[in-house]
Amino acid sequence: MTDMNTHNQTGLYWFRHDLRLHDQPALDALAEQCDKLICLYTVDPEWFSPTPYGTTSIGRHRQQFLFETLDSLNTQLQSQNQLLHVVVGRPVETIQALIKQHQVSIVGIGEYQGFYERQQVQQIQQLNKNLKLISAHNASLFTPESLPFSLENMPDSFTPFRKKVEKYSTPEEIPSPVSFLPPPPVLARTDWEALPLQRGTISAFQGGEEAALKQLHYYLFDSGQVSVYKETRNGLDGWDYSSKFSAWLAHGALSPRQVYSELKRYEREHIENDSTYWLYFELLWREFFYWQQAKHGRNWFRQTGIKGRIPENTPNPHIIKQWQQGQTDNPYVNACMTQLNATGYMSNRGRQWVASYFVNELAQDWRYGAAYFEQQLIDYDVGANWGNWQYLAGVGSDPRGQRQFNLAKQAQMYDPHGEFLALWGEGESSVA
């Protein structure tokens, strides 16, 4: 609904890590204050440029998942007489051009605590002193105001964070659905085939909000697998041993508050046990790293991590390449890396194995491993990925310091019959 004060105002909503229509408080608030709306997503060319670690920011598996997610969002928007305007270009420059071209007076965003994402929003504000910015938290269970501590005083280890949050905080309620407005009539439609995103890989993961909500319902209500999650979560291969929500959460096709809401409904209607709690426990791990990156800023990416300690290692390109290609002296590390390169996914247990091996056995700089995961993983999340790598490397949030796994013992525990090794342990993997 608009009034006389909002007549002829054009708004722009910048989709980033929230590629969905549910749980969108800033988008809803923006729609109340304008009568034309641009829905924007930017594909940053920097994603495809080499990083200092010899990788790119996004590999072929995540590119396909992202394309599917954007296509799905556009289809949903078209059903609401809108469209998703996808531009290949640097985000700040792209938004500046649209503000000028369409006389945009209000911009809406979902808050995101990644260091570079926050920098970009600050740059837009600095360049447009009179621009109204509407923002809301839609990528987290909690807001800074609902946490039982300030970000500056947030615990740097998970257990005290979890205990305080469980005692004092409740996830935010999901807002009502968005009411959509039309785009400006002169807005160009996206040439989808021209987007520099690779397609054609075979994946068990289908991008988009519809697929996300389907998997949420399947895992909780159709299969009931959540009721045994604590017992199955350390599986190495297959679909039902874990929720698989991470890929959709990472792209924002699924809201963590939506997961929590449906989990509570499952507990009310079916069963509440240690396994259903453990899914919430894992959501809290995600939440912990999400806010930790906000607290520590650039240190999230520094070799010294949040502890300021310099690990003793010297990057060796040959050793790093062998690890990437699954050609090390450890067959389980090789199997996990082969699986990652072939599918864009690896189990949580496998991720701990290969990270521990990279840091402890190969004595390599943890950032090279984190950057490779960033490139390869469909479910890459800047908070969880870099936070977990710091944790394993002894420069992050682990109070015990550097962790080292006995991989032979781990393999006996989690692959006693050698089934995972038989499936993924043969042949060379493709790095892309």
Automatic annotation (TrEMBL):
Gene3D superfamilies: 1.25.40.80, DNA Cyclobutane Dipyrimidine Photolyase, subunit A, domain 3, HUPs. Pfam families: DNA_photolyase, FAD_binding_7. Its cofactor is FAD; (6R)-5,10-methylene-5,6,7,8-tetrahydrofolate. Binds 1 FAD per subunit. Keywords: Chromophore, FAD, Flavoprotein, Lyase. FAD binds at residues 229, 242-246, 282-290, 379-381. One of its GO terms (biological process) is photoreactive repair. GO terms for molecular function: DNA binding; DNA photolyase activity; FAD binding. Residues 9-142 form the Photolyase/cryptochrome alpha/beta domain. PANTHER family: CRYPTOCHROME, CRYPTOCHROME DASH. NCBIfam families: crypto_DASH (TIGR02765). Belongs to the DNA photolyase class-1 family. May have a photoreceptor function. This is Cryptochrome DASH.
